[in-house]
Amino acid sequence: MTTWRRPVTLIGLALVPVAVLGVFFVLPVSGMVARGFWPDGDFAPGEVLDVLTRPRTGRVVWFTVWSAGVATLLAVAVGLPAAYVLHRLDFPLRRAVRAALLVPFVLPTVVVGVAFRQLLGEAGPLGFLGLDGTPVAILAGLVFFNAAVVIRAVGASWESMDARPAEAAAALGASPRQVFLTVTLPSLRPAIVSAASVVFLFCATSFGVVLTLGGTQYSSVETEIYLLTTDLLDLPGAAALSIVQLVAVVVLLAIAGRLRASADPSIVRVPARPRRPRRSDLGQLVATGLLLVFVAAPLVTLLVGSLQVGDAWSLDNYRALTTTGSQQALLVPVTEALATSLRTAVDATWMSLSLGLLVALAVTRRWRSRAERRIRGLLDGFFMLPLGVSAATLGFGFLITLDSPPLDLRDSPLLVPLAQALVALPLVVRTLVPVLDGIDDRQRQAAASLGAGPLRAVMTVDLPVLWKPLVAASGFAFAASLGEFGATAFLARDDHPTLPVVIFRLIGHPGAMNYGMALAASVVLAVTTAVVMAAVERLRVPSLGAI
Predict the structure, then answer these.
(1) What is the count of structural domains for the chain?
(2) Do residues 263 and 254 make contact, with C-beta atoms less than 8 angstroms apart?
(3) Structural domain that includes position 335
(4) pTM of the model
(5) Is residue 49 part of a domain?
(6) Which positions, given as ranges, span the membrane (predicted)?
(7) 212 with 289, same domain?
(8) Where is 308: in which H helix or E strand?
(9) Is 386 exposed, middle or buried (0-12, 13-18, 19+ CB in 10 A)?
(10) Residues 175, 106: contact at Cβ < 8 Å?
């Protein structure tokens, strides 16, 4: 009986989140895929296989792999110097710079798309380069988002790296370059490869950036699924691409998980304290400064554009947010959409936090048998799957599977928060898991030996360590919900849209007033998410990049 008690406890902890993901993730996605394989009620896999031989499918897959690969290399190249500067050097405003470089990761994709269009468009400061609507603009947007992942993942590893081997190499006469190549880089390699795999995953599944900056001229797998489901109603094509995407993501998650597990937590490390910059650090400092300019340029351009009407400075774009735009572009004012976004984000946050805490408790239990280890690995991978499924697939799957009793949720106010909670769930889990993993189980055993029950042990051992990561996870979930666009574009009703959906509709309607409102609404949304992430950064919880 004792042999099976721990695996049964593990399954019991995971039962609720597994059931929720089964109903609100597996069911919609499998329903979407089933519509592709059984288009008329009869099994017809040939139609799906034919999709993979289309010339356009080949171009879409190639563009996805090419753009994600190049963007990953660029993100790593610009992120490594910044990781060193922000985690190994001590200088004034270091925390402010770190927060500024973290904000892009959680900015709504629609906001970033509008910001880069404002920067690179014909009337923008860099319009003379002719990059608007080109693959270069898409790459810039992807790097803008994902450099933060490299900075946080590699920076956390750099910060905790044992300083003694590098000091010994330097004492033996090795130059700084030799120390980096022979000591530092091998130690950082697992973190770099893990971060690169996560960045590639995010780039390959990017939706809003490619859609707003590339339109239909440059389609990734993600935007092609959206096009096939909404415009062409080609469900076999969408199913084929969804399967390809899901398989690729499972492989990437397995690689990232193996790399995370390769670190030996039993090694005693003596990390070096941050030091003052030296002349030899000038190159890294300049690179970090250029990255900060790269991050600030589109956001500053967005802010300036929102404050201009014609050639004059004005707040009219912000005043217009209480209207429905010119030519009735919207059904509700932007301010009402913002209120809807905030309410939805609150609901999505408590949902994802409740599920994520149960998942984290389940996957961090100390395993003592091969069965427990296998169950934990399967659960860990299962709860990361929402990262790899197209938001369009998930949203459309909600519509076609949750449309009849007892799961007729098409008119439920919880439909959009549920979808957004699934999107935010991996962020919550990866924020909490490292913290729970780091708690010494002997402390719980000591509390139990002193007569503390399970709840008392959690209150006295786990909660003091966990409360900051819980608050940080709430911030990540809230920010992710505010900016979620892919699934929400399917599910949000016209009379209750969220702010990202409204912004996308405004830039799709002609008229200077509508475009000015889109700029102002983008600034409001960006400031809201930036404030949330600035508060999270003050908690100093290193989570991004551990996905």
Answers:
(1) 2
(2) no
(3) 1-43+310-547
(4) 0.80
(5) no
(6) 60-84, 96-116, 136-155, 191-215, 235-261, 282-304, 348-367, 379-402, 414-436, 470-492, 512-536
(7) yes
(8) strand 308-309
(9) buried
(10) no
